[in-house]
Amino acid sequence: MSPSRGPRVVVCGGGLAGIAAAVEAATRGAAVTLVERRPFLGGKAFSFADPGGGPDLDNGQHVFLGCCTAYLALLRRLGVIHQVALQPRMHVPVRDRAGRTGALTAAPLPAPLHSGPSFARFPHLGPRARARAAAALTHLAALGPRGRDALDDVSFADWLRAHGQDDDAIARFWDLIVLPTCNDRSDRVSAALAAFVFVEGLMRTRAGGAVGWSRVGLTQLVDGPARRALAAAGARVVCGQAVVAAGPDGVETSTGERIPADRVVLALPPGRVRAACPEALPEDPGLGSSPIVNVHLWLDRPVMEGPFVAVVDSPVQWVFNRNEVGGEPGPGQHLALSLSGAHDEMGVPRAALAARMAEEVRQVFPAARAATLLRTAVVKEAAATFAAAPGQAARRPGPVSPVPGVALAGTWTATGWPATMEGAVRSGLLAAHTVLC
Ligand SMILES: Cc1cc2nc3c(=O)[nH]c(=O)nc-3n(C[C@H](O)[C@H](O)[C@H](O)COP(=O)(O)OP(=O)(O)OC[C@H]3O[C@@H](n4cnc5c(N)ncnc54)[C@H](O)[C@@H]3O)c2cc1C
After folding, report:
1. Does residue 47's CB lie within 6 angstroms of at least one atom of ligand 1?
2. What pLDDT does residue 116 have?
3. Ligand 1: distance of its center to the CA of 288 in Å?
4. Which of 143, 244, 289, 295 would give a disulfide with 357, using CB separation of 3.0 to 4.6 Å?
5. Whose CA is nearest to atom 52 of ligand 1?
């Protein structure tokens, strides 16, 4: 690749936001350097060696939806789209502790009618609660983007109660979607963000709610492919060095290297932005954070079918069958329980939490009662995402910082999305466009 004659752009932070910004800027002819503190790219979506000797474990089961078009486009650009699975249409099996199983499935009908038939049969709400939930969904769809944005200071639970939903309906239907997408329960989540998820994710198009996941470890999915794509576009990748100072004319790294620049993208968490370039983020946005805990259970035999199941009435929330999702070999089964908004679980010792979850799995999946639990692992991410709390929108800055030539990126910036891989990629693209326009 011949040296670029475009502007020199330094992207700080090699999470999905930084990768997206770097790839976009390099593709548009900029001379890009991407600087990442850790030895690998991928940020909060990463994997690590399983201490038990199995395939790499993700720091948390990551899923995306069909509506995550920017994330899917990035995977295409990195040449790894074949490494992810995406349902042809949304199909979310939902069980409860009593063994009742239903599903939220997109029917071959025009949106938003596609959700109707499976919802009409959803066994975890009674007929009257279903009718009230359908009315609330219709109300959400009619709000429009401005109407939704106006709800940012209200908790989704308050909005739901004001629209006829009781605690049972919130727990057995609404939080089924809100927890994994906004990483907290409705009473802690902005009504604007939750409404965005239901309308844009599940109702706007038939394909939008299809669930996708990586078939390989998250680091394998992104680290090498991003480095190769960036190298092919003439970019330089510097891993294992933290940016300690940044300004419009360049950055300084923890090894003392000075990298000159014409433009800089800070794709870092807010605290790191303020440490490296305080003028770019004069005030701490005070977004707070929300935890995710993953509990891994290895059993001596299969106890569930299909790639995943959502569980109501139980702390296990969403259970992933890693043999199917990640192609892990049998004859046993590896389950990954993804616990979002796991404030209470963070303080529980790992062994006790694994034992509690194994007991719950025995309740939910009768076949697990005869199975032997071979081993367990618990992965706690205290600050997995920013808190999707009421008032979040006013705290999230856009890509333009007060420092000319310096742009902000990261899932915590103003994308309108909750803390997702899609939000991260969109923020990176916005930042690249900001510094190159
Ligand atoms: C357990 C868990 C489960 C999740 N599940 C899902 C899911 O199912 N679906 C979904 O869409 N999203 C999920 N997410 C959220 C998603 O992973 C994040 O929103 C997204 O990866 C954030 O990307 P980012 O680039 O904005 O930030 P980050 O990934 O935080 O990237 C910031 C990067 O900057 C680097 N850095 C920090 N300081 C410096 C410095 N001084 N110099 C250089 N580099 C620095 C960091 O090492 C990091 O690589 C989950 C997150 C976690 C933790």
Report:
1. no
2. 85
3. 15
4. 295
5. 384
The per-residue DSSP string of 359-399 comes to HHHHHH-GGGGG--EEEEEEEEEEEEEE---TTHHHH---S
CA of 305 to the centre of ligand 1 (A): 30
Ligand 1 pocket, 62 CB below 6 A?
yes
pLDDT of residue 119: 86
Amino acid residing at 157: A
Is 70's C-beta closer than 6 angstroms to any atom of ligand 1? Answer: no
Rg of the Cα atoms in the chain: 22
pLDDT the model gives residue 3: 58
35 three-state secondary structure: strand
- Please report which confidence band the pLDDT of residue 369 belongs to, taking 50, 70 and 90 as the band edges: very high
Look-up: residue for tokens 């599903």?
Answer: 103
Mean pLDDT, range 47-62, rounded to an integer: 96
Q: How far apart are CA 141 and CA 147, in angstroms?
A: 10
| Two structure tokens written together for 285 | 């946005």
Distance 386 CA to ligand 1 centre (A): 10
**DSSP single-letter state for residue 272:** H
Q: How far is the CA of 26 from the centre of ligand 1 (A)?
A: 21
Q: What is the average per-residue pLDDT within 392-403?
A: 98
Residue type at position 61: Q
Q: Domains in the chain, start-ordered, CATH in brackets?
A: 8-44+217-287+393-436 (3.50.50.60), 102-203 (no CATH), 289-386 (3.90.660.20)
Q: What's the gap in Å between 44 CA and the centre of ligand 1? A: 3
As separate numbers, helices (DSSP H) first and strands (DSSP E) second, the chain gives 15, 20
- Closest residue to atom 8 of ligand 1, CA basis: 62
Q: For ligand 1, atom 6, which residue shows the shortest CA distance? A: 62
- Phi and psi at residue 417, in whole multiples of 5°? -95, 155
Which residue has tokens 């999702």?
325
CA 41 to ligand 1 center in whole angstroms? 10
Residue 179 φ/ψ region, left for φ over 0, alpha for ψ in the -120 to 50 degree band, beta for the rest:
alpha
> Which residues lie across from 238 on neighbouring strands?
35
Candidate of 265, 268, 408 to mutate for ligand 1, largest count of ligand atoms within 8 Å of Cβ: 268
Could you tell me if the CB of 421 is within 6 A of ligand 1?
yes
The tens digit of pLDDT for each residue in 262-279 reads: 999 999 999 999 999 999
pLDDT single digits (tens) 370-393: 999 999 999 999 999 999 999 999
CA 367 / ligand 1 centre spacing (Å)? 36
Q: What token pair was written down for 130? A: 């279903």
Q: Which atom of ligand 1 is nearest to the CA of 68?
A: 11
How many angstroms separate the CA atoms of 246 and 406, rounded? Answer: 9
